[in-house]
Design brief:
- The protein has helices at 2-13, 18-25, 45-54, 56-67, 93-101, 124-135, 154-168, 179-195, 202-212, 229-244, 265-271, 284-297, 304-313, 318-335, 341-354, 361-372, 376-380, 386-403, 407-413, 419-435, 437-451, and strands at 29-34, 37-41, 72-76, 144-147, 174-178, 216-220, 248-253, 275-278.
- The chain contains 21 helices and 8 strands.
- The longest helix is centred in the C-terminal third of the chain and has 18 residues, at 318-335.
- Strands 5-6-7-4-8 form a 5-stranded parallel β-sheet, with helices on both faces. It has a 3-stranded mixed β-sheet with strand order 1-2-3, covered by helices on one side.
- Helix 12 crosses helix 13 (304-313), helix 16 packs antiparallel against helix 18 (386-403) and helix 19 (407-413) packs across helix 20 (419-435).
- 57% of the residues lie in helices and 9% in strands.
- It is α/β, with parallel strands linked by helices.
Length: 453
């Protein structure tokens, strides 16, 4: 199977500039392919993120066409050694020593702690809520439901809660999982059980893993449950079992529980049982602080004027801020130029022109739904009627073009659709826009309306 990876990589090499091919493509190593997963190794986090943003979607598309199946991608970054959350200053030396060697629970990202989270006016309540839950897990703030747009810090707070609970309760079992992983684990267990009906129940093992063993369950991107009836039923019973046992549940999502399309009302109701907290877009001061903190973590020398230039140019989310910092670091490394204000503005000029500011996937969805006179939840839902399917593909195309969001991110905003579905929609509309003058006129009109907003 690994040969398929090599063939998929070679399929895009001729379209990649030699410098980028040698610098960013070839250092990525495929370790294994199987059971719907690909394991890759990147030399460092910058390589990983550059590769994910620039090459991975095209390679995955080619690979999945060859293998006739979809894959989830996992990365190993060898040079990033595990870190533990810094203990509070009030802790004694002996406790510090114990905390230093505690193994981090599987699945928790060591970068995401409360110490590395930058608090601002629009995420202050979410941060405070996360702190309260971490300090008193399983209490009245159960579940904690964190919601907001892509790349604003929900995942960071989810993992920070896990690290803090682990620091206070090192013997507790903390289970952290993406909703997509939960669904995949459930489907795999169910299918294997059917193949081995006489064996010890694999479904019982699955249910024990999520219902009996965890003291804390952290689930990222719960919107991926949309339109997956059996998985929703399984998660409903998992939620009930943990809540009844007063085990802490933390969920992240891209929207409020009541606004989740394709999710049963009984689940929406339970998601709202505890505390709901929004993570908003960072203001200018917070963006500057985030950039300075990220640069400090990455040991980058970054002047205040450069940080302000980045924060002024990139207004969307934390992930885009990190991407801008990555662009600066990468181009500085390739060209040998120092990162001063002039160099930053030159790089950011290209970045901003490629990604127009002021657009969001939500605003595009609303504009397309209004233009075609269809309901917003139908546009984001599973309906396949031509009157809905074509506008949905147009909305995905515009989302990719105007926001630069990744294919998985766009899919998550359309009811948890797979990234391959988004890729197919974008390519189809690109082809039709070139061939069909009527459709080209519609897309141009929509884009014009959005730019005038």
């Amino acid at each position: 199977m690994i040969e398929l990876w090599g063939e998929a990589v070679r399929s895009i090499e001729e379209r990649v500039k030699p410098a980028n091919r040698d610098q960013w493509l070839r250092p990525i190593e495929c370790l294994a392919i199987g059971e719907g997963r690909i394991r890759l190794r990147a030399p460092n986090r910058y390589h990983k993120e550059w590769f994910e943003d620039n090459f991975l979607p095209s390679i995955l598309e080619n690979l999945q066409e060859r293998a006739q199946t979809s894959f989830a991608v996992e990365f190993e970054v060898p040079e990033e050694s595990p870190m533990t959350a810094k203990p509070q200053e009030a802790l004694g030396d002996s406790v510090r020593e114990v905390a230093a060697w505690r193994p981090t629970p599987a699945g928790l990202d060591n970068r995401y702690t409360f110490e590395t989270f930058v608090v601002g006016a629009r995420n202050q309540f979410g941060h405070a809520a996360a702190r309260m839950v971490a300090g008193s897990p399983g209490s009245k703030y159960n579940p904690l439901f964190l919601y907001g747009g892509v790349g604003l810090g929900k995942t960071h707070l989810l993992h920070a809660i896990g690290h803090e609970i682990h620091r206070q309760h090192p013997d507790w079992k903390i289970t952290v999982v993406t909703c997509e992983q939960f669904v995949s684990h459930f489907i795999r267990s169910m299918m294997n059980q059917r193949k081995q009906p006489s064996s010890i129940s694999l479904m019982e093992e699955f249910r024990s893993h999520y219902r009996e063993k965890p003291d804390v369950l952290l689930v990222d991107d719960i919107q991926f449950l949309a339109n997956k009836d059996s998985s929703q039923d399984e998660f409903f019973h998992t939620f009930n079992a943990l809540h009844l046992a007063q085990k802490q549940i933390v969920l992240t999502c891209d929207k409020l529980p009541a606004e989740l399309p394709g999710v049963e009302e009984r689940l929406q109701s339970r998601f709202a049982w505890g505390l709901i907290a929004e993570i908003g877009h960072p203001d200018l001061e917070t963006r500057v602080a985030i950039i300075k903190r990220k640069a400090e973590i990455e040991r980058m020398a970054l002047g205040d004027d450069v940080a302000l230039a980045i924060a002024t140019a990139v207004r969307s989310n934390v992930r885009e801020l990190e991407g801008a910092l990555l662009q600066l670091s990468a181009r500085s490394s390739i060209t040998g130029r120092s990162i001063d204000k002039e160099f930053a503005e030159e790089v950011l000029r290209d970045l901003v022109s490629a990604t127009p500011q002021g657009f969001s996937i939500e605003s595009i969805q609303r504009e397309v739904a209004t233009y075609f006179d269809i309901k917003l939840h139908d546009l984001k839902g599973p309906k396949r009627l031509q009157s809905v399917a074509r506008p949905r593909m147009i909305a995905m195309y515009l989302a990719r073009k105007l926001t630069g969001a990744s294919f998985p991110e766009i899919g998550s905003r359309f009811g948890g659709k797979d990234h391959s579905t988004v890729i197919s929609a974008v390519k189809k509309i690109e082809r039709l826009v070139a061939e069909d003058s009527n459709l080209r006129s519609v897309v141009t009109t929509l884009e014009s309306h959005l730019r005038q907003r």
